[in-house]
Design goal:
The protein contains 18 helices and two strands. The chain is mainly alpha-helical and 428 residues long.
Length: 428
């Protein structure tokens, strides 16, 4: 349940719809599905296997299972935790802010220009987004200090089904808006002439970001699992849950984008501009808006906890720190690293890295470099270095059937490293 919470978060609800909008809609979605259920699912199983076999964080896991230069691969996960959570927390802070903006009635309009101006003015403010970024990081640190197992699992069991149900309700409302069918066609009727190298790269980076792959989070959670847990079944269920939420989020956002004549490639602001317009058209729209942004914040929290847990597990296991100290210092550093991401949409908008403003640059480094490189390493490690041990771990010592084991090995050895490597290089 904690791993599902890690996978289901802003990557599905905030990032997937605008990535689909920027990359051709249905063609992107089909490629995304193919990558999720081949490379993504295989790499997820690899992470669970490594974590449970070693019973340690990513750095310690590689060191125990093989040692040598492999132990340094685990640091990719720690680095990803710092970089991704720094900008992720900024966006999650927006979700918290929009809870209060919904309650105050500021979002009670379906005028796209007004909602767009509100979002732009909010993200450009030098102080307010940083305040909510700090609140979100404080919540993440508090959960980590209190322990992941009880709090996050118990919370996820209640809130994840609620989020799913609310997305279904919103999807129905979105599809009944005048002009929504054009958005549905864009989302479900593929035009493969729009597919480029950027589409493939975006689909793979989104698959890794959405499933929490390559950052060591699932490896860390795998280290907490008993040998009786069926890793094959668990991996499939998490992948299905994650993909279902992403699909629903697209069904909520993209038809509404066309209904309100928004640009589907408008980027990260879609959830914060389009959805409030949908809510304003609904009976009890304020209630739905508040509930949605509360649940979106919770979904973001379950994912942020998994990112910070990678950092904390490293310092606790390898450096002997107390959990409270590791969570507080790690969270504090990540908060500071997130400040430039927040300011890059306002007073620091003129400062760019490789032509990207700071938040997009951090997203690019995390999603398009660190996660794919981490995925390649995980696949090669399982496919070539510890495969007999990995297969034994995946099947629980033969207790669980795994008829696709030869396919898994082939994907780990050849398909995943070559495909991810090619897309990584072409993206660069």
């Amino acid at each position: 349940m904690a791993a599902s919470g890690s996978a289901v978060g802003l990557g599905n609800i905030w990032k997937f719809p605008y990535m689909a909008g920027e990359n051709g809609g249905a063609a992107f979605f089909i490629i995304y599905l193919a990558l999720v259920f081949t490379i993504g699912l295989s790499v997820m199983l690899c992470e669970f296997v490594i974590g449970r076999a070693a019973q340690r964080n990513p750095v310690g896991a590689y060191g125990i299972l093989k040692g040598g230069a492999w132990k340094y691969v685990g640091f990719l996960g720690v680095a990803a935790g710092f970089i991704i959570l720094s900008f992720y927390s900024v966006v999650a802070g927006w979700a918290i802010a929009y809870i209060f903006k919904s309650v105050s009635g500021l979002l009670a309009t379906s005028d796209p220009a007004a909602l767009g101006a509100l979002f732009k003015n909010f993200t450009a403010d030098p102080w307010e987004p940083i305040l909510y970024h700090g609140i979100f990081m404080a919540l993440t640190v508090a959960v980590i200090i209190g322990g992941v197992n009880g709090g996050i699992e118990r919370t996820s069991k209640i809130l994840m089904p609620l989020l799913f149900l609310l997305l279904v309700v919103l999807a129905v409302r979105s599809l009944t808006l005048p002009g929504a069918m054009a958005g549905l066609k864009f989302y479900l009727a593929p035009d493969f002439s729009k597919v480029t190298g950027a589409t493939l790269n975006g689909a793979l980076s989104q698959a890794f970001f959405s499933l929490s792959l390559g950052m060591g989070a699932l490896m860390t959670y795998g280290s907490y699992l008993s040998r009786s847990v069926n890793l094959i079944k668990t991996t499939m269920l998490i992948t299905l849950c994650d993909t279902a939420v992403a699909f629903l989020a697209g069904l909520v956002i993209l038809p509404a984008v066309f209904a309100f004549s928004f640009d589907p490639s408008a980027g990260p602001g879609l959830v914060f501009i389009t959805l409030p317009a949908v809510f304003a058209k609904m009976p009890l729209g304020i209630v739905f808006a508040v509930l949605f942004f509360v649940l979106l914040s919770i979904a973001a929290l379950t994912s942020s906890v998994s990112l910070l847990e990678v950092v904390v597990a490293y310092f606790v296991d390898e450096r002997g720190w107390q959990r409270r100290r590791a969570a507080t210092i790690g969270g504090g550093v990540i908060f500071l690293l997130g400040i430039p991401s927040s300011l890059s949409l306002g007073v620091w908008s003129g400062f760019t890295i490789g032509g990207k403003e700071f938040l997009s640059a951090m997203d690019y480094v995390g999603s398009n470099i660190l996660l794919p490189v981490g995925g390649i390493a995980v696949s090669l490690f399982v496919g070539w270095v510890i495969y007999p041990r990995a297969l034994d771990e995946a099947t629980g010592g033969g207790a669980h059937r795994f008829q696709l084991a030869p396919v898994w090995r082939f994907i780990c050895r050849y398909v995943a490293p070559i495909a991810v490597g090619w897309i990584l290089v072409s993206g660069l």
